[in-house]
Write a structure and sequence with these properties.
- By secondary structure, this protein is α+β, with helices and mostly antiparallel strands.
- The protein contains 7 helices and 10 strands.
- The chain has a 4-stranded mixed beta sheet, with no helix packed on it. A 4-stranded mixed beta sheet has the order 5-6-7-8, with helices on one face. A two-stranded antiparallel sheet has the order 9-10.
- α5 packs parallel to α6.
- 30% of the residues are buried.
Length: 219
């Protein structure tokens, strides 16, 4: 079983840059994308036969060109859902779900709270609502695999400069405390399970100051 999770920062732009080739190379059972920034009708998938051959589920934001999540499944009979059932998050396309054999796959795009205090509070509300929603889903449908862009770096070894970023959105104390709470509810950070002390392993880098080249990132 191979599950791939990727924030594509716009599926249409990413398709132009080789997303189809990456999907073919990895051959995932489930290809989970975040920040798709499009609804299915806006994407010319017929030009991409590998992705077209997969069953897909799209959760698109009401605001055009914003947020959104997608799952492509290599298993045609898997039940898929494009809703959390919480209107304010569904309006931003924050989640979709695949009910696979033996587990439920949840693909999430956590809000980014950097834009304003209002968006930070929206993000914290999402976090408050998420754990009970996931635990209810687990109770109803069995074990969960939760993938996506969490927009939170949990500990100091998950960020290149924890001192300068201590008040930055994504590393604020209340966000990190929520992540600890999330793990205390039985969820597992699989990377840290396998690599508990690994440093300089990041999943996001700023476009500024050659951050990726210098590996000045966040996980």
């Amino acid at each position: 079983m191979r599950i791939v999770s990727w924030n594509v920062n716009g599926i249409r732009a990413c398709l132009d840059k080789g997303l189809e080739n990456v999907a073919q190379e990895l051959e995932p059972d489930f290809f989970c994308l975040q920040e798709s920034k499009a609804c299915q009708e806006q994407v010319p998938l017929l030009a991409y036969p590998f992705l077209t051959s997969r069953q897909s589920i799209w959760s698109s934001a009401e605001k055009k060109g914003y947020s959104g999540t997608v799952i492509f499944s290599a298993h045609p009979k898997v039940e898929l859902s494009h809703r959390m059932g919480i209107a304010k998050y569904d309006a931003e396309g924050r989640a979709n779900i695949a009910f696979a054999k033996g587990f439920t796959l949840v693909n999430l795009y956590f809000p980014n709270g950097a834009a304003s205090d209002e968006r930070h509070h929206f993000k914290m509300g999402f976090l408050d609502d998420l754990i009970p929603w996931l635990k209810k889903l687990e109770q109803e449908r069995g074990p969960l695999v939760v993938v996506g862009d969490y927009n939170i770096a949990h500990t100091e070894i998950d960020i290149h400069d924890p001192v300068r970023n201590r008040d930055a959105s994504g590393f604020r104390p209340e966000e990190r405390a929520w992540m600890s709470k999330f793990l205390a509810h039985g969820f597992v950070d699989t990377f840290r399970l396998l690599h508990p002390e690994a440093r300089d392993q990041y999943t996001w880098w700023s476009f500024r100051q050659r951050s990726r080249e210098r590996n000045k990132g966040w996980r």
